Amino acid sequence: MPTFTLPALPDLSPATPVLWRGRVWTGVEDAALEDGAVLTRGGRIEAVGPAGRLTVPDDTVTVQTGGTILPGLIDLHVHARPGYLPWFVAAGVTTMRDACNSLETVAALLTPAGLAPRVLPSGPLLDGPATVFRKFGSGAVHEPGDGQERSAGALIVRTPAQAERAVAFLADQGVTHLKLYETLAPDVYAAATRAAARLDLPVMTDLGLLTTRGRAAQVDARQALALGVRSVEHASGFALAATRAGLDPAGDLPTALLDELAALTVAAGAALVPTLSVFAPLTTDTLPDQRDLPLAGQGGPLRESLDGQWRAVHAGTRPIRALARADGRLAAQLAVRIARLGGRVGAGTDTPAGAFTLPGGSLHAELERLVRAGLTPTQALRAATGTAADILGRADLGRAQPGAVADLLVVAGDPTADVRATRDVRLVVQGGRPLTPATLRAALEA
């Protein structure tokens, strides 16, 4: 059985049995296995355990990683474009949940020309006639049945019957989940959730924030949770719930209310995807320091375009810095309470819609922000691995366990002790195929 060390690897096919040795964290347990190993073959994980106790085939190739092996990361809130799909994989993000794209864009995301993460699409979101998407031009907004649904970023539904038809249409297009947005009327929102439940289609929801249209939304987080949504994005709708309780969400909310809202989320079986990285850059006039994030130095026309977009958003939101601080504070307070109650907190970035949310790299910043909010390093890591997979309903992802997809990330250091260790990416394994830093750089350049 030949043995190799990083980065000197042969060209290994996914069919080759490979024993990856190092510190192993499975994405589920609290503690890492110090002298562990993961056996992969055929794109799947066959065995995990102490390195000296695993029985392996005679033709196994052993790789001494010299680092920590953990599941490939999952970003639960992305608005991707085909051009920067390789950025995610290069940063160790092997799966992403699309949080709104036209079906035309989804088709391109699902048929990438090169390196790309696994994409779980929502397609266009459902919203009411007052949708903010009208700001993006007439082509961004269409109604079910108008013949142009595939180009829409938002499908406008005015009645419960329209909502049911829209959900059925999206399900027929193969979306893996449904996104419900800010200005849906309560009866329309409820009809959409019922239709999604009949089709076993999970619902993610953005109900607006103090920094967006949250004060004008018709459905708050309490109502959405009662209707069975799978995840609440950005901690949206909770500020509206506080307002309806007679409180000012721009100030410090009572501990009793925060505890109640967190407990309500856990009892509903829903997850919170707080996207702390969306709020942080908007709280200050100072541009964020991203120098140690994966791909922070990636240049080229695409990066220049993103930087221009981000700088415009950052400058344009200067008048709402205080509201961004309030939104971020509420999201962090709820996240830590939900985690302490044993509920689900997921990691998402809103990249690249949020200012300076670097595709792929910003997920590492999100993990650190979750820890700063009060989660433990392993809770934050699970938010992008095992817990994220649970939110997706995918037991075969986010875990270094037998039967799971062989998506792995090898990093230097121990991220269960210092979550910033995820930023030092030494190797990405995607479906059993090892991708060295040199391979990843070549994919980015291509």
TrEMBL record:
Gene3D superfamilies: Amidohydrolase, Urease, subunit C, domain 1
Cross-referenced InterPro entries: Amidohydro-rel, Metal-dep_hydrolase_composite, Metal_Hydrolase, Metallo-dep_Hydrolase
Keyword Transferase in annotation: no
Residue ranges occupied by any Amidohydrolase-related domain in the UniProt entry: 68-432
Pfam families in the record: Amidohydro_1
Domain of life: Bacteria
Single GO term (MF): hydrolase activity, acting on carbon-nitrogen (but not peptide) bonds
Keywords, ordered alphabetically: Hydrolase
Protein name: Amidohydrolase
Tagged with keyword Nucleotide-binding: no
